[in-house]
Amino acid sequence: MVSMSRCLCLLIVLFGCNYICSAEPLAGTKRLDWKGDIASRLIDSADAFLLKKIEETLAKNELDQPDRAELARILGVVDKRVAASSHLEVLSKVAESDDFVVHEIRWEAFGDVYGEGLWLAPPNAKESIIVIPDADQTPEEIAGFDDKLPMVYQTAREYAAGGLNVFVPVLINRNLGPHKISNREYLYRPAFELGRHLIGYEIQKVLALVDRLGAELVGIHGHGEGGMLALFSAAIDDRIPKATVSGYSGPDADLWQEPAERNVFGLLKQFDLASLKKMIAPRDLKILAYPSGPKVLIEPKKSRGKPGRLLSSGNQEENLKKQAQPLKILKVVDQKTRHARQIHELDRHNQQLLVESPYERRKFMAKLKTTSPLAFRETQKFYRNYFSEKVIGRFSDELLEPNPRTRRIEINDKVKAYEVVLDVFEDASFFAYGILILPNDLKAGESRPCVVCQHGLEGRPQSTIGEKDRHYYEAFATKLAERGYVTFAPQNLYIFEDRFRTLQFKANSIGRTLFSLMVPQHQQITDWLGGLDFVDAKRIGFYGLSYGGKSAMRIPPLVDNYCLSICSADFNDWVWKNASTRSPYSYSNKSEYEIFEFDLGSTFNYSEMAALIAPRPFMVERGHFDGVAPDERVALEFAKVRHLYSAKLGLGERAEIEWFVGPHKINGKGTFEFLDRWLKH
């Protein structure tokens, strides 16, 4: 994907740097008189819109009946657990006190994944409790192996001293791994892409203990991350008779601020704290204000992961108790090796799911019929709707009248261009912005084909119209206009680094994505373009580079106004690119932390997205030295597209790929010919 430097972005913030603006509007439109950076204004409007939608969603939850199965699904609690007939494995006795002994234990959870931790065993104890520490607390710390934690945090020790069997699982900690990404986010990323979640994995380990303890279980107690797991576990599984939660106040409107691994797609749609309480009732739920939760701040300059914060309030000093003497240690537990083993098992599970994912997608797409054009279109409706509702996320807001505002800018003497602003949604005045380019030889009464030219990451419409400092775009919006097309270059939301990246997490919390905003933008853009006298509404194509290519796979499936789509410098095995932790091409260890979309692994890779574009023409533009993915991955995924178009639909001429010797850029040869063939003839 294209990554623009900040200095280049600043170079074009004021259009006067490269292009001359005038007040002259396009005929039939109002004059655009906005000052300042419109792209920044757009991000602000998207932000305000999403914050309002979060508030509306939380208000609506009071009327909804929470769905336990749906909560399990979005948390990724979906893998079959190992039967409870397999017993807890006691590895060794590691410590003792006057009240109990401590054993190191492990147990089968799901697949090849084990839970590990400690068992504090008082003599003759008949009842048991599961105590879950914060992610940055070890079982040994809350069991009182040393004096690092005050007694208020030595929860496991206190319960054991009271006569209960106490089982304490190990959680994945928040330490930065070798890629400057926290261990938790590193495991979350591929899991999220594959329809799982680190939260779900750790819940599964807890529930595997519940399976084995049966009627002797009297409750579950968690602190910090453990408090969150205790709350969700009790909401999912009614076998847990009581839950105590400390250091966690439940999901709320600020969920998007938290670390990435707490991002659960659509959590706030049904499962705010009030809803979770309903799911646990009439069982006992106790939420403790003290001790305070973890104080964690993930700074973007120190990590390649998502910035996040867990800064819970509370005065723990009021709750400190006199320290007890540390336990008598009989064996030193190799905590570092144990933790590394836990990471490895979950990573291995993710990679096994990745291997299985093509078969899951094949099963998912089995209802798509290709026996006839009619059958294809009818069965395609289900998948388009699923993609819109479950993957992209759709807002039900009605589009406003576009109310176009424009002003003339000068590019060269062969074309004329206008900045354009269109209203989209009323709330927060969310709008669309871009540049319209018209050939100078456009005659009165003439109707031309149109190409929407989408920039990539950190780009702008201006990026696509001039070659200076933007050589990878090859001024393709301008060149196509010089070739006789009307072109339009929209501003997408992938700009300003963490400003846009946090938008994705705001959207995810209510079951939406950035494309939930960009699809209606493009619907409005193409509706408006199609209504212009000089644009043929039936001949509007989409052509995007890099993140614009990502858009080419997601927007045309849901905007029927696009009669074709070209994906440049992006098409690849997208699920593999995001979920693999073995490949140097993978995003699992890169700074593009917002890129992951929930459960594409079992639904839509790029070939399946292309099936939503079909039977409309579709093309891939691919440089051999493009760093998006290796040629063989691109070729394999496109082969599936070609098979659909050619072998099944008998429309092989509508699916093309152009290979060229070059990097991550617009080539503008085969794609231009493709546009001429389908839009001019």
Task: Provide the residue-averaged pLDDT.
Answer: 92
Quick one: overall form? elongated
Q: Count every helix, treating DSSP H or I runs of 4 or more residues as helices.
A: 20
The CATH architecture of the largest domain can be given as: 3-Layer(aba) Sandwich
Structural class: alpha/beta
Number of separate structural domains: 2
Kindly state the number of beta strands. Answer: 22
- What portion of residues is helical? 25-40%
Structure write-up:
- By secondary structure, the chain is α/β, with parallel strands linked by helices.
- It has 2 domains: 357 residues, Alpha/Beta hydrolase fold, catalytic domain (Rossmann fold, 3-Layer(aba) Sandwich), CATH 3.40.50.1820; 291 residues, Rossmann fold (3-Layer(aba) Sandwich).
- The protein has 20 helices and 22 strands.
- The strands form 3 sheets. Strands 1, 2, 14, 15, 16, 17, 18, 19, 20, 21 and 22 form an 11-stranded mixed beta sheet that branches.
- Helix 2 runs parallel beside helix 14, helix 7 packs across helix 8 and helix 8 packs across helix 10.
- 53% of the residues are buried.
Chain-wise SSE layout:
Layout: H1 6-11, E1 20-21, E2 30-31, H2 38-60, H3 68-74, E3 89-96, E4 101-110, E5 113-121, E6 128-132, H4 139-142, H5 155-161, E7 165-169, H6 183-193, H7 198-213, E8 217-223, H8 225-236, E9 242-246, H9 267-270, H10 273-280, E10 284-288, E11 295-298, E12 308-311, E13 328-329, H11 335-364, H12 373-392, E14 405-412, E15 415-425, E16 430-439, E17 448-454, H13 476-482, E18 486-490, H14 498-509, H15 515-530, E19 535-545, H16 547-554, E20 562-568, H17 574-579, H18 606-613, E21 618-623, H19 631-648, E22 655-660, H20 670-679
Parallel strand pairs: 2-14, 6-7, 6-8, 8-9, 9-10, 17-18, 17-19, 19-20, 20-21, 21-22
Antiparallel strand pairs: 1-14, 3-4, 3-13, 4-5, 5-7, 11-12, 14-15, 15-16, 16-18
Helix pairs in contact: 2-14, 6-11, 7-8, 8-10, 18-19
